[in-house]
């Protein structure tokens, strides 16, 4: 079915202005209050005229409900992004540079930019406001702006069940080309290994000691690290231990992570870690070990034929974007949404080199993202999901 496309286009200057306002407000994980107040200010300006309602939940997440317009069903579409930014992110000074007819927004190189995820939030907010002002077709929309995404999705995990009662969710929080639909993400497990030996004076009686760092070294050598297979990665990120050069250390602690898409392979790799510990400890009588692991989020896969995904592909076609599917090896709030029964996918927020001092975004990418949101709203107003 072909429909009249958007009558007017989102003004890139408005979008840029909003984005710059957003990144200038500090919002570290757990310290999103000022930024949330800014968003509430923007929403409450529109609330009386357009019937928006909003609330902040126990996790500090901001939930905004936007009534539908010309919708052919009563399904709710969630549009989401996170409010927090990784450090260093205090007093961000964005720098706008004109390059070949486009503008690139970067930081002054002393902080991250905060485009992760504010280059997702700005297009969502401006597109929804634009749709309200121009009375464009849209389903009932719920905006979910989360806290503490960067600390293992802590904000999303505190969302109330009612907030997740919706038909489909689209989270704008990835790097890369617009139109790429991320419908698979891994399980993420953090683990800690304690290698225990015996402390003695290193010069006087070394033969009576059991060096925990040597124990840990032998363990590391036998672990499957890096890309374990096509579905799985494993990393040791910390090795700590020791008290002085003249003491044989009695404790070394390894901390790492395991990510993967296949539960049976993750179980196998966890078992492998335990087997390595037992094996190495047996070669060093008197040593002992501890192993603890904690899954921080769970893998998901949303089917490529889900009506919400089909609607997205239709919207992409309509705006001239080529849609394709991708599996990410990172987590996002969408891991929580899908686990708790709300199917959803992740789209690009256009940012480049996230979490680095070189983090940046093109204005053209943000504008495209906002236009895409408008077409998504139109499509989801007409097609059930
Ligand atoms: Zn992010």
Q: What sequence of helices (H) and strands (E) makes up the elements?
A: HHEEEEEHEHEEEHEEEHEEHEHEEH
For the sheet with most strands, the description reads: 6 strands, mixed
Supply the number of structural domains: 2
CATH topology-level fold name of the largest domain? Aminopeptidase
CATH architecture of the largest domain: 3-Layer(aba) Sandwich
- CATH homologous superfamily descriptor of the largest domain: Zn peptidases
List ligands, each type once: zinc ion
CATH top level assignment of the largest domain: Alpha Beta
Radius of gyration: 24 Å
Mean pLDDT: 96
Structural class: alpha+beta
Give a brief rundown of this model.
This protein is 32% helix and 26% strand.
Structure, described:
- The chain is of the alpha+beta class.
- Helix content is about 30%, strand content about 25%.
- The chain has two domains: about 10-185 and about 300-380, Zn peptidases (Aminopeptidase), CATH 3.40.630.10; about 185-295, 2-Layer Sandwich (Alpha-Beta Plaits), CATH 3.30.70.
- It has helices spanning about 10-25, 35-50, 115-135, 155, 210-220, 265-285, 305-320, 335-340, 365-380; strands at about 55, 60-65, 75-80, 95-100, 100-105, 140-145, 170, 180-185, 185-195, 225-230, 230-240, 250-260, 290-295, 300, 325, 345, 360.
- α1 (about 10-25) packs across α3 (about 115-135) and α3 (about 115-135) packs across α9.
- The radius of gyration is 24 Å and the shape is elongated.
- The mean pLDDT is about 95.
- The chain binds zinc ion (ZN).
- The site of zinc ion has 5 residues, from α3.
